[in-house]
Design goal:
Blueprint lengths: L2 H29 L10 H18 L3 H36 L5 H10 L8 H14 L3 H7 L8
Helix pairs in contact: 1-2, 1-5, 2-3, 2-5, 3-4, 3-5, 3-6
């Protein structure tokens, strides 16, 4: 097996791992009944979008699908910040309700230690980073640039 074949297999593995992250995220959210507010549907939509773009890149690698994958993973990663923000705001709001006279430092600590796991939405960023990495310098993108691409079989 030459280095191009090895790299092609690693790219495929990265796409599969990223898809696994999105599938496991949805599974965990279903277990938690994470849909009581409209904003809580966002990770379901982002995971679905991620799975579709990963499948396109896996089964139909082309310059267009690789561009779609890269931009989708960037958007998904950035949107995970919305979830982190939402978790922090909800934890802070709850803490301010039960301890209205708390010191600022106590509120900060309580925000990070609250019932909503602050970093949990970051799993979407991880999946997106893995998916984006699979597209990094993909041979299909070299086709787009007009360079010669060696065949990998």
């Amino acid at each position: 097996m030459n280095s191009d074949q090895t790299l092609a297999r690693i790219r495929q593995l990265l796409l599969i791992i990223a898809a696994g992250v999105f599938v496991m995220t949805v599974t965990e959210l279903v277990f938690l009944s994470h849909w009581s507010e409209t904003i809580q549907l966002l990770p379901f939509l982002l995971s679905g979008w991620g799975l579709i773009t990963l499948a396109l890149a896996y089964f139909r690698p082309s310059p267009r699908t690789m561009d779609i994958l890269r931009w989708s993973m960037i958007v998904i990663g950035l949107c995970s910040l919305i979830g982190i923000y939402e978790h922090m705001v909800n934890n802070l709001g709850f803490q301010m309700e039960i301890q209205p006279n708390a010191a600022p430092w106590e509120l900060i600590v309580a925000t990070f230690e609250g019932a909503n796991p602050v970093l949990a939405p970051g799993i979407l960023m991880l999946g997106a980073a893995i998916g984006w990495t699979a597209a990094y310098q993909h041979p299909a993108l070299e086709e787009k640039a007009g360079t010669v691409v060696r065949s990998v079989k």
